Amino acid sequence: MSTSSEPNQNIRGYEPGEIAAKGCVTVDIVIADLGVTLQALIDSQYVDSKTMSHRPGIILKYLPYLYDGITGKLLTGGLYLFDTYEDAKDYIRWASEEFEVGEPKVKFTEQPMFKSFTDQVWKTWSCSEPDAEPKLQSLYAKVKNAAETGNAASVWLLYDPSTRKVGLQLAFRKQGVAEPSAAARDLRDAGWTALGDVLSQQLHLKPLFDRTGVLLTLWLPRSRAAGGSELAIPYYPVVPDISHNYFRGSTH
What we know:
With about 250 residues, the chain is of the alpha+beta class. The protein has one domain: Alpha-Beta Plaits (2-Layer Sandwich). The chain is built from six helices and ten strands. It has helices at about 40-50, 85-95, 130-150, 180-190, 195-205, 220-225; strands at about 25-30, 60-65, 75-80, 100, 105, 115-125, 150-160, 165-170, 215-220, 230. The strands form two sheets. The chain has an eight-stranded antiparallel β-sheet. α3 runs antiparallel to α5 (about 195-205). The longest helix has 18 residues, at about 130-150. It is globular, with a radius of gyration of 18 Å.
């Protein structure tokens, strides 16, 4: 059975416009066993979200999915937005040191299903150069306008002060109907580098990686708190809805 017959309906608590967020967490996970099905991956993250999406300050999470056709790696993880930078840091501390899953219990980051787990905490709307604040303030306005023109549904401008990395997270609107060919077209069209070029020229950056991929689910804690849906599945029914017939041990 499905947890909901209409997984993308009744979303509450989120309005278009600026989000008062000061912290972000990005997590990259390589799945060790390519025998893990898409259904199992969606169900697994749903089980975890029942606890993780209640952490202090969390606003939303994007769950990405990317199969690397060259290396054969299955990549997933998450992009989490938080009220404060401190909440973002505490989330990683908790997820790495305290949160346990499965039977027998293991640390979340040490699951056998994970070949590798890397995380990073970011500040939003900042930069590493000496004149960081005024420069980024002007750049963010340009980034936001360019993102809207390019049909992006959201844009996050991120900075990690410990490593002096700048991050750009874009989410794009789904085009057309939810079918495999449309999903493939959306993924191709999302390979948009104009904003990255602007940032690189203005801040003298070097590109480190590109994680363009389909978003499987969106965690929506504010919607749940408002009595609405707790998550959305953008590409349903191309990707499956959550199933109750899931046991974590079956994927190990």
